[in-house]
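Recall the central idea of this unit: under ordinary conditions, the amino acid sequence of a chain determines the structure it adopts. In this exercise we apply that idea directly, starting from the sequence alone.
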Amino acid sequence: GRNDRVIDRVRVEAMQATIAGVLGDGFSAAAFSADYAEFNRPEYHVFTTDNQDYLAYICLILGTGIISRDELIAAVRAGRMRGIADLLRRVDARAEELPAAVRAVHEQVSAAIGRGDPTPFKEFRRAEFRATIARMGRMGDAASVEELLEEEIVITHEVMAAATRWHDRGALLFGLSDKPDEASVPEAADEDPPVHRAVTHVVGG
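Accordingly, the structure predicted from this sequence is:
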């Protein structure tokens, strides 16, 4: 879309914050950025299935040093790592070497994947929800269009106008999104509103 880069940036910021919180003093922002940039490429979709939860887990494990970036790249390219299950088994074999906080996340992610959950890294997705809401309606009405598109998640005017017109003519409107529930709706009633109820600016012609 018109400002999809902001949505992507918010997701990465939430991922980084989550991993930094788990790794503590062992976290390196530079290493995370390099790991994410490498494994977010289409070349690795055969391994990651383009799943951002898997990518967050991969970056977390790489951050522990239990397996290096170069080692994982070589394993994927050689076909020794065909999917996230292969990495989970690799980490299982050395789980006792992990810090307690990382081991807890590993166990949670592993159990969720075992249940067939496509969004197994819950802590990351909750952080994404909070970061997404924080980027909606955050700027004053005096902000320029350029500023809004760079810093805020906005509504596309053309889409809103069409939806309003259809609604006024009696159409039943509903929305679909590939954003997981955990990154879209609050966990408790006293939290921020769900994404589809958040108020933000409208940009467009």
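The beta strands are 155-156, 202-203.
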